[in-house]
Structures are given as C-alpha cells and as structure tokens.
Specification:
The complex is a heterotrimer of chains A (386), B (217) and C (223). Chain B is an alpha/beta fold and 217 residues long. Chain B has five helices and nine strands; from the N terminus they run H-E-E-H-E-E-E-E-E-E-H-E-H-H. In chain C, the strands form three sheets. Chain C has a three-stranded mixed beta sheet with strand order 6-1-8. The chains are: A alpha+beta (386), B alpha/beta (217), C alpha+beta (223). Chains in contact: A-B, A-C, B-C.
Chain lengths: 386, 217, 223
C-alpha cells in the first residue's frame, strides 16, 4: 500500500472543486486474496473507500494450455480440458468433444447424447450451487450458506465419482460419445439426488433470498445494461441477468437440447442480485431438463463404434464448437493440418471475457462491493489464465 | 446465412474493400471471409450496424501463426533438348504462409445466426505486424486482442489499452508462435514434465548397473 | 415487514442445527483418518501394473509395448524394454519391461494409459495416501511398487475386473487354440517333410521359428 505520488503513471485527474478530496491510494488487491477465487489481481486506485480506477492483472495461473495442446494428440488434450474450469470438467470435455466432432464429422449415438445432457446439467447444478455459496460467503454470510451448498454439491460429485472415477477431473467425454456407460444403480441414485434437490433450493431461498441486508447490498450494485452486455461479449447467466435472451441450448440446440422443454430465466436490472437469482432459477430449469432426460434415455451404445481412440487424424480444416457451459459460452476453435496434433487449438474462455466490463462495473462502488461483483461474475482462474 | 450474400452486401456498402472467401475443408463447413486490413474496421462496423442480419456479438478472437512454408514438388516435363525429346525433372517451389492471422467469430443475436468467420492477415511475421483493432466495434475483443498481441505479437492499431495480458510485461518473445523456442535458463525443479525421462535415466546411471537393485529383491 | 427475511433465514439455520442431532442427513461431516466413507467402486487415482499368479516378476501382463508411454499426456511413464523374452500366460515368448516407472508427481490420473493398453496390464489404483518426505524418489514408483496382484484388482474394482478376466480368458483360449492348430500344422508339415527327405534335422528349428514369428506379428498388430 502506498500513497500515490504525482509521478505515478496511473494518475487520475480529480475534480478541482472537490474540497473533500484526500490522497488517492493505490492498492494491489490479490493475487493472493481470499475473495478473488484464485490468483487474480486488481490494481485499485481508491479515493477513501471508493474505487476510482481498477486494472485487472492476469496471468498468474498461465500455463499456455493452448501451446501444450499443440504438442498433444487430440485425445491427449481431453484431460487437460478438465483443468480449465476445474469446477465443471464435464462441460469442458463436452465443448472440446463437440468441436472435434464438428471438425471430423463424427456422429454421436443417441444414448451418448442423453448421457451428455444428464452429466452436463448435473455439472451446471453443482457449479451454480457452489457459486451462490461462495457469493454469499463473499457478502459476509460466512460459512453457513457455503456449507449448505457444498453439502448438496458433494452429492453430485459422488455421482460423478461413481460414473467417471473422479469427483472433479472427470475426463468423461470421448469423440463420438462418452468413455463409459452408467454403472448399475447409478440412475436410481441420480434420480434420488434430483428429486431431493428442490428441497435444498427452497431451503436456500428462505435462508437468504429475501434477507434485507443482502438485498440492500446487491440490488443496484455492478449494473450492466443489455447493450453493454452484448457488445462486451458477455455470455451465460452474466448476460441473461442483463436481459440478453441468449442461451446456446436454445440458440444452437447442440446435442439434443431441442427435445427438452425448459425456460430461460432473464434478469431485468443486470445487477448482482439478478445474477444471484439467475443461478437459483437456472438450477430449477436444469432439474426440469434432468427429469426429462432421465425419463427418456434410450438404451444403445454409449460411443460411436467407428471412431478410433488412437491415431486419430482429422482432415485438414477448421471448426468452432461452442456450448452453454455453466459460466457462459465455452468455445473451442480447432485448426487441423491433417496431422495427429491440432495445428491450432483455441479456448474461448467465458470467465475471461465476462471480466471485460469489470472496471466499469466497479467504478464508484466501495472495495467491499468489488468482492461481490467479482463473485457474481463467477470466474475460475484456471480458465481465465489458461 | 449465406457467406456469398454477406460478401456482396459488404462489397456494395463498403467501397474499395477486397474480400475473399476461404473455403474450409472440414465437415463443419464454417467457411471464412478474408478482409483486407485497410478496410477491416469499416467492414466490422458495417457488419455490426448495417448488415442484415446484424452481427452484433463477437464471440471469439484469436490468432493463428502461419510461418513461411516452402513446399517443393517434383514434376516431370518433356522437353526437347538438342532436338531430342527427353524427360526432365523440374522442382517447383511454392511458398505459402509467412503471415500472422487474426480470426473473429461473429454471431447475430437477434437472427441467431453464425458463426461468421472474419480473418485478417498481417504482411509478414517480423515488423509488418500491424492490424486494425476491432475493439472500438466490439468491446469483447478487448482482452482477446490483448491476448493475441501477447502470445502472437500482432500489434492492434487503435486498441485502447494494448499491453501484455498473460505473460509479464518484460517478457520478450511471443510464445504461441510456431518458431518459439523454450528458454533453457529457467530455475525449474527437476520434476518438470519433459525432463522426467532424462532424470530417471540419470538416476539409474548413477546407481550403477541398471537391474542390480531388482535382482537383490 | 423489515427484518422478516432475516428471521426466516435464522429459522432455517436453527432447523438445520437442531436437525443435525436427529437427522443423519443433516450431519454430513466425517472424522477423516478414524472414520472413512465407503469407497466408490469406480474411484481412480494412480495407475498400477497387474500380475497374474503369485510371482510378480513372472506374472506381469505388461509386454513393454510402450503404447501407454507414448499416449500419456503429461509423459509420466518411463519404460525400458527387455532384451530377452519371457513366456507369457499362454506360453508365447514376449518382452517384458526391464524398467517401468511412473512419476506420480506428474501423473494426472486421466486413465488414458488404461484405455489404450491392449493387454489389460495397467489399471487404476485407489491408493491416495501417498505422501512422502522424499520429494522425488518417494513419488517415483518403480516396477516393484507398481506391481499388484489380480486379486487386489478384483478387490478394488470387482465389476470391472470380472469383465477384464472374462475377456482375457476368452482371448487366451483363442490364442491357445491358434497355437495348438499351428503346432498341429507344423507337425504335419514336419512329418510330410520328413517323409519326403529321410534326413532332415532342422525341421524342429523351423517350427519354433514359426512360433516366434507369429508372436511378433500379433504384437505388431496390437501396435
């Protein structure tokens, strides 16, 4: 912490007639800070408690995922995608598998599509449950809501472990399907989790949704308008909280999402409270999808039998595949030159692009509000820095 | 969405621009539109505001490095040398690449169409690496163009805040380029990935006879 | 009413707190080292090598084909192929790994080595308490630490192991049948040759060479 001198590069001109103006304070918040959800750093310029300027600093978790992938086989990159957004590895796998399937024209059997929807929506549930827990933790509701959320999340992680062998690094999708079929008894357990989940949501809503302190703090904080959201490329719950009706499950209808009936919740104000509610409402819709998918899942192969696992070489060309990941639009852009490794492998990270408007959202608010604004964006640094 | 249609739309409304459709060989069928860099910004703002459908959502921005690639193919031609027809082998050299490319994936929110793949190319990979920034048109390009500048070395003219994004500020090279060489002076720990083989070999070499430890078991 | 939301929330916490005395579901904590959750069958962490029978050195299924080494995304496997060959489960001479090391500090438990192994020789373990005070040596698992019996495999992944065993038994049966037929054919050929030329000592040599040749071909196929 240092008092900003006139020589500093980041000097901001203050209105000359502001007689109450004190010294501007330059603070580095992060990279090791409990509320930044990882190693994220913001250089703040403060006037008292008010934010005058904010510069995000990235790269503390940078490992050049894209370069690593250029040296790996197509299959070899699959476990690395788990580590992008390490909260929801299955949707990362899905996005990558979808891009490769577009690139090479691989069909996906019916049952595999249902497995993908079921695991993908479970991922959304556990991501949102974890996020609202963390968000409330950031708001000062220490412990209790987070633990309630993690208790539910753990039930879904148990399902993942029973299916894929790992709680978080699932590595479940393969090109043209999924790695393995459901083990015996899995579906019954999953149905039980899905049936009990609304009880948790009710509990959670009565816990804090109408809490006056929470509403006071979150409503009107960190507002993004619809036009700004579109122009800044925001996606997922972030954009929908600002009233952008854009859900890739409805727009692209990738996989078999056209078969399910569900609604897309939309926010009105684009503030932190709307983003918080967006997650709660989306979880209810995910449960609807899950119920339909679990009812309709057909039997059949879980993997395209003609796709080789080794020596996979797609024809030269390129493809951009995207899905509605819990955090927003997760895209993979692949260029193949006909070899066993991708020539170019690009991840379109929703967490990074949702941070574009961070400074604008924070300016004028207090430092404690930055924490909840950042919490409501839902970032995972594994994906921001790649 | 028809790429030809969009191309003629742009040509009618942005005078003087040269567009080229690049075909994509993969089953995805996502063909792209190559725009000359002089008209990049005008084409982009036309696409956002004037085109039908309006491409108001720029989802993905990325760079691709195409180093100079010389391919020589041998071709047999018949030539008449001193009145005698004989077959002569000729080596034909073709050079491709030697530019950096920036790719934009655009979508239309209302018409729900896309992706429209927009590409721009630099003149070479050394000093003529300037391209117009499309951040004034789509704010979403801001961080991603910074990333392309950082990892590929494309300089975006008109970008509001062109700094390195992921690497630190004093870093010299551009790591995503194909000819990037890993530095060998890192203070890294001996468990680094590629070194695992060498380290284990050295480990056994230091122990003496390779299978001696196993025999005693 | 102002404060209604807060009271509602506090009521919820109270319900959870008192509920934890009567309802097991509300008390989810497990006192870890003393108390453990039941293991989920599909759990995986680091790979191990399966061997059949009692002697781990003789029974290793691994034939050092090095596919897993090549496919391993973080390149944590190191294999050195043997110079000589040993008979495998069906008596076919095969290479074996003179060295087989896995650096578990690099391994990311992705299971790709298990998926690509054509011999069902490498499987995923469930042993996660691997902390060691030797940072490099302690996390470098050598062949003897990796080798675990098929019985152990059955114990940790019963369903999967039963499937693998059935498939292996079928393959081995087929292989034995093939060998028997080849031997019969070779014997017939030898007999015919012996009948044609009375003195022909190198026939037996030719027969063994045939056997070795087919083994090599099978391995090439697997690659």
């Amino acid at each position: 912490m240092s008092v900003l001198t006139e020589a500093s590069v980041d000097t901001v001109s203050m209105p000359a007639d502001d007689h109450l103006q004190g010294d501007l304070l330059e603070i580095s918040m992060g990279p090791v800070h409990p509320s930044t959800h990882g190693v994220f750093r913001m250089n703040l310029l403060l006037d008292g408690e008010r934010v005058v300027k904010l510069k995000p600093v990235f790269g503390y978790l940078h490992r050049n995922h894209e370069k690593i992938a250029e040296h790996e086989t197509y299959l070899g990159s699959m476990p690395y995608t788990d580590r992008l957004d390490y909260i929801c590895s299955i949707t990362n796998n899905w996005a990558y598998a979808l891009a490769v399937e577009k690139l090479a024209g691989i069909p996906v059997p019916e049952r595999a599509e249902y497995l993908r929807v079921i695991t993908g929506e479970l991922t959304r549930l556990q991501n949102h449950a974890g996020l609202i827990g963390f968000l409330l933790q950031d708001m000062g509701a220490s412990g209790t809501p987070l633990m309630y959320a993690f208790r539910e999340r753990e039930k879904i992680l148990d399902l993942f472990e029973a299916l894929t062998g790992a709680r978080m690094m699932c590595n479940y999708m393969r090109f043209g399907g999924c790695r393995c079929d459901l083990p015996a008894g899995w579906m019954e357990q999953a149905k039980k989790v899905v049936d009990e989940f609304p009880r948790f949501l009710d509990e959670f809503e009565s816990l804090l949704r109408t809490n006056e302190i929470l509403m006071e703090r979150t409503q009107g904080t960190g507002i993004v308008t619809r036009e700004q959201a579109i122009n800044a490329g925001l996606s997922g719950p972030m954009a929908r909280a600002s009233g952008v009706n854009y859900d890739l499950r409805k727009v692209d209808k990738y996989g078999i999402y056209d078969r399910f009936s569900f609604r897309v919740p939309l926010g009105e104000h684009g503030d932190v409270y709307d983003r918080f509610m967006m997650r709660l409402l989306e979880m209810r819709e995910s449960l609807e999808i899950l119920k339909q998918a679990m009812r309709d899942i057909p039997s059949g192969p879980h993997k395209d039998p003609n796709t080789k696992i080794r020596n996979f070489r797609p024809k030269a060309g390129e493809a951009y595949g995207r899905i509605e990941a819990p955090k927003g639009e997760l895209g993979f852009y692949l260029i193949s030159d006909g070899g066993p490794n991708p020539y170019r492998y690009r991840v379109r990270p929703p967490s990074l692009i949702n941070l574009t408007l961070l400074e604008q959202m924070c300016i004028g608010h207090n430092v404690s509000d930055i924490v909840i604004i950042l919490g409501s964006i839902d970032i995972v640094l594994g994906e921001v820095d790649r | 969405m028809n790429l030809e249609e969009i191309k003629s739309q742009i040509e009618a409304n942005v005078p003087g621009c040269s567009l080229q459709i690049l075909l994509n060989g993969s089953p995805s069928g996502q063909h792209s539109l190559l725009v000359d860099k002089e008209h990049g910004l005008t084409v982009a703002s036309y696409l956002r505001d004037g085109a039908s459908p309006k491409f108001d959502y720029c989802s993905n921005v990325t760079g691709v490095d195409w180093p100079l690639k010389e391919t020589s193919t041998k071709q047999k031609t018949k030539k008449i040398v001193d009145g005698v027809e004989s077959e002569v082998e000729e080596v034909i050299k073709t050079a491709t690449g030697n530019y950096l490319e920036v790719v934009y994936h655009l979508f239309s929110m209302d018409a729900r169409q896309g992706p429209l793949v927009l590409r721009m190319r630099t003149e070479d990979r050394v000093d003529q690496v300037h391209l117009p920034s499309l951040t004034p048109v789509w704010r979403s390009a801001e961080l991603q163009e910074r990333e392309v500048y950082d990892l590929f070395g494309v300089v975006f003219d008109g970008h509001p805040d062109l700094r390195r994004l992921l690497m630190w500020d004093d870093f010299k090279d551009h790591p995503m380029r194909k000819d990037y060489v890993d530095p060998d002076d890192y203070e890294y720990e001996p468990t680094a990935h590629d070194e695992v083989l060498k380290r284990m070999q050295a480990h056994y070499a230091a122990q003496g006879a390779p299978s001696a430890s196993e025999e005693t078991r | 009413m102002l404060g209604e939301g807060i009271i509602k929330g506090l009521a919820e916490t109270a319900r959870n707190f008192f509920g934890s005395y009567v309802n097991k579901e509300r008390l989810t904590t497990v006192q870890y080292p003393e108390e453990r959750l039941p293991r989920i069958e599909a759990t995986r962490d680091f790979p191990f090598l399966v061997y059949d029978g009692d002697d781990w050195e003789k029974g290793l299924r691994c034939v050092a084909c090095q596919i897993c080494e090549k496919e391993c995304p973080p390149k944590c496997i190191y294999i050195e192929k043997s110079k000589d060959k040993k008979p495998d489960a069906v008596g076919k001479p095969q290479n074996y790994p003179a060295k087989f090391d896995i650096d578990v500090s690099v391994c990311m438990s992705c299971q790709i080595c298990v998926e690509v192994c054509p011999f069902d020789a490498i499987k995923m373990d469930v042993q996660f308490e691997l902390s060691s005070d030797d940072r490099f040596g302690g996390l470098l698992l050598t062949k003897d630490k990796l080798a675990k019996s098929n019985e152990y495999y059955h114990e940790i992944h019963p369903t999967e192991a039963a499937g693998v065993d059935a498939a292996l038994a079928e393959d081995r049966e087929k292989e034995k049948e093939k060998q028997r037929l080849a031997a019969a054919a070779a014997a017939a050929a030898a007999a015919a040759k012996a009948a044609a030329a009375a003195a022909a000592p190198p026939t037996t040599v030719a027969a063994t060479k045939d056997g070795a040749g087919s083994g090599g071909a099978a391995k090439e196929e697997a690659k």
